[in-house]
Amino acid sequence: FILMWSLPESPRWLYRQNKVNEARQILEKIYPANEVENEMKALQQSVEEEKHAEESMEYGIFSKIKNAWGNKVVRRGLYAGITVQVAQQFVGINAVLYYSPTIVQLAGYASNKTALALSLITSGLNAAGTIISMLFVDRCGRRRFMIISMFGIIICLVVLSFMFFQASNHAPPVSFLESNHFGANSTCAAFSSAPNPSSWNCMTCLKASTSCAFCANGANKYNAGACLALDGATRGSCQAEHRSWYTQGCPSKFGFFAILLMALYIISYAPGMGTVPWIVNSEIYPLRYRGFGGGTAAVANWTANLIVSQTFLTLTETLGTAGTFLLFAGFSVLGLIAICILVPETKGLQFEEVEKMLEKGDRLKLYGNYKRDTNESSSY
């Protein structure tokens, strides 16, 4: 969208199409009359250098990579473009979206229907956040939107980690009486043979073996329950007494707050890190490298997505849910630092001005704001 509407207004594009008068008219709207001629000469020189570079450019895949990384402007653009795309994935968003029913169960909601319904709400919030981005990103700026988004993400992930940690520590205990209520053959073997079963709680039961499940107390699901074998007959016996059957998470008074924080996490993510990295990658590269740059950043995005989504369940088993979200918070902090250092602000700039800003380079660090220098000739 941005590319389609911005290119026809670009003096460089007009000049390359031999529409010299139209290019001059655009420059006359931007610069004082006494500077237009100098700008036209700079434009002519820039276009000629660009054409010469294109004529000498080799078009094999390895040659393209060599030419791109050998170009200072493109290289800095790739640093920024790849940074925002990888950061977008390593905040853990797609793991949350892909496994949201599992995460909802980990938060203490045993019903599959409830977990699925709550996960659909998270997808709806993601869509709503994208609409917010469409309305405000041109006012607030790309870089600022991402930085605000990352602060919100980090806060939500840290608090979410704390909530899951508390839920795990305050899981209902396992009772011999409750477990034996369903018969010795229904009790989980790991619990029966444990050296110190009196110290077990619901999370201990679920983590002990993939063949263990927790049947909540019939009177109050937060009271001591049973650690049972994970099979259809035992599950049926548990549910026949109107008890909740847990295989992923445990009954928790913190569950509602965990779901609320997940919603805030998605609301923080969607308007900023959800959409802006794609906008930045449509604006950050010189025209002749735009396809290569955007494609390279997209490959980085999907590679990061693959890593996060394929390791999420393993991480929750190894580190626990709390540890996994805290790990994502750590990655988010690194992403925030990288964005502050490497990503410039492209709000309101023409493609040529973005290229000039990347050429200078020194204004990228920490600030990311570019101001037109009317005493210099622009590189179109």
Give an overview of the whole structure.
The protein has 380 residues and is an all-alpha fold. The chain contains 18 helices and three strands. α8 crosses α9, α9 runs parallel beside α15 and α10 packs antiparallel against α16 (276-283). The longest helix is centred in the last third of the chain and has 53 residues, at 290-342. The protein is elongated and about 95 Å long. Mean pLDDT is 81; it is low at 1-8 and 365-380.
Topology record:
Elements: H1 2-6, H2 11-16, H3 20-30, H4 33-56, H5 61-70, H6 72-90, H7 93-98, H8 100-106, H9 112-140, H10 142-169, H11 176-180, H12 189-192, H13 202-208, E1 212-215, E2 226-229, H14 232-240, E3 245-246, H15 255-269, H16 276-283, H17 290-342, H18 351-360
Antiparallel strand pairs: 1-2, 1-3
Helix pairs in contact: 3-4, 6-16, 6-17, 6-18, 8-9, 9-15, 10-15, 10-16, 10-17
List keywords for this structure.
Myo-inositol_Transporter; myo-inositol:proton symporter activity; 3-stranded antiparallel β-sheet; 380 residues; elongated; transport; single chain; 67% helix; mainly alpha
Compose a concise summary of this entry:
The protein has 380 residues and is mainly α. The protein has 18 helices and 3 strands. 42% of the residues are buried.
Gyration radius, rounded: 28 Å
How much helix, percentage-wise, in residues? 55-70%
Give the biggest beta sheet: 3 strands, antiparallel
Approximate strand percentage: under 5%
